[in-house]
């Protein structure tokens, strides 16, 4: 790795004068309604985690942590009632009323957990699950089933569902299962791969075929979140909640994207972060670079 490139990266990083984000600018994100990733969402009941940003190691989704859930349920009244319950428990919910709509949402945005009713028009929940897994999307999936759908439960678990819950269900059980599924996903490993890049969250290290480079904790966490999204665009407010506990200053997400891109360039990686505060952010790999 060229030492002059590394020197430029570090000089650029520390040449930013942080007070320019403070004077005349309000704090961003702490109490804003969450925006969906290309969709409208309800933001009631979302609370930023009040713990200091010593990073929530492994991103455990405890009480109050900003978490996004897709709820796919064709019964409009049941979907609305479930949405209200989940939001009162601090979750941000997007609702789909048929399988095609649910699949489109999962293809277009990042969710921490998807709750799919098996019996839906368009595509049933099992077919949505199969297509999502075939595309390599590892979002935790909880199936909503009837007591008589034993074969569907077995099929769903075989096709990659993480859990199921039987109707009628206790709302407390559903919330607990959603949080457990999210914890299982995020706590599996601190090492994440995306293209030619390996991100080691525990040691805050980026590694490619040419070498390794240390980054700070926020850079590492931002990189892990974008890598987990698998190239899908994630909302700026979502990153602010996860990386900065809702206390990011105006322009800070964009600043950290530039930090990461400078270091990825120094490592000779084909991976880069692209986007804007308005449109959201994603991690991409340039093919053939």
From TrEMBL:
Organism of derivation: Parafannyhessea umbonata
Keyword field contains Phosphoprotein: yes
Domain Response regulatory: 68-182
Domain of life: Bacteria
Keyword S-adenosyl-L-methionine belongs to the record: no
Protein name: Response regulator transcription factor
Molecular function via GO: phosphorelay response regulator activity; transcription cis-regulatory region binding
A GO BP entry: regulation of DNA-templated transcription
Record keywords, A-Z: DNA-binding, Phosphoprotein, Transcription, Transcription regulation, Two-component regulatory system
Family annotation (CDD domains): REC_OmpR (cd17574)
UniProt cross-references to InterPro entries, sorted A to Z: CheY-like_superfamily, Sig_transdc_resp-reg_C-effctor, Sig_transdc_resp-reg_receiver, WalR-like, WH-like_DNA-bd_sf
Residues modified to 4-aspartylphosphate: 117
One GO cellular component term noted in the UniProt record for this chain: protein-DNA complex
Gene3D superfamilies: 3.40.50.2300, 6.10.250.690, Winged helix-like DNA-binding domain superfamily/Winged helix DNA-binding domain (1.10.10.10)
């Amino acid at each position: 790795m060229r030492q002059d490139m590394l020197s430029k990266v570090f000089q650029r990083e520390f040449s930013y004068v942080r007070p320019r984000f403070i004077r005349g600018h309000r704090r961003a994100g702490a109490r804003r309604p969450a925006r969906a990733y290309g969709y409208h969402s309800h933001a009631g009941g979302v609370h930023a985690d009040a713990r200091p940003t010593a990073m929530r190691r492994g991103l455990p989704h405890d009480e109050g942590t900003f978490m996004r859930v897709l709820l796919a349920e064709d019964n409009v009244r049941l979907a609305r009632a479930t949405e209200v319950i989940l939001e009162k428990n601090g979750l941000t919910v997007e609702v789909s009323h048929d399988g095609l709509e649910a699949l489109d949402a999962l293809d277009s945005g990042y969710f921490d957990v998807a709750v799919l009713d098996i019996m839906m028009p368009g595509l049933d929940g099992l077919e949505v699950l199969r297509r999502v897994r075939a595309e390599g999307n590892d979002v935790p999936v909880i199936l909503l089933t009837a007591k008589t759908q034993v074969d569907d439960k077995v099929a769903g678990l075989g096709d990659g569902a993480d859990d199921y819950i039987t109707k009628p269900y206790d709302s407390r059980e559903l919330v607990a299962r959603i949080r457990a599924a999210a914890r299982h996903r995020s706590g599996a490993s601190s090492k994440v791969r995306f293209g030619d890049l390996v991100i080691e969250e525990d040691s805050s290290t980026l590694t490619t075929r040419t070498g390794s480079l240390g980054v700070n904790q926020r850079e590492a966490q931002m990189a892990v979140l974008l890598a987990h999204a698998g190239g899908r665009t994630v909302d700026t407010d979502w990153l602010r909640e996860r990386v900065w506990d809702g206390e990011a200053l105006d322009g800070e997400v964009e600043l950290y994207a530039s930090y990461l891109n400078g270091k990825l360039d120094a490592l000779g990686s084909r991976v880069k972060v692209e986007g804007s505060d308005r449109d959201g952010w994603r991690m991409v790999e340039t093919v053939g670079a």
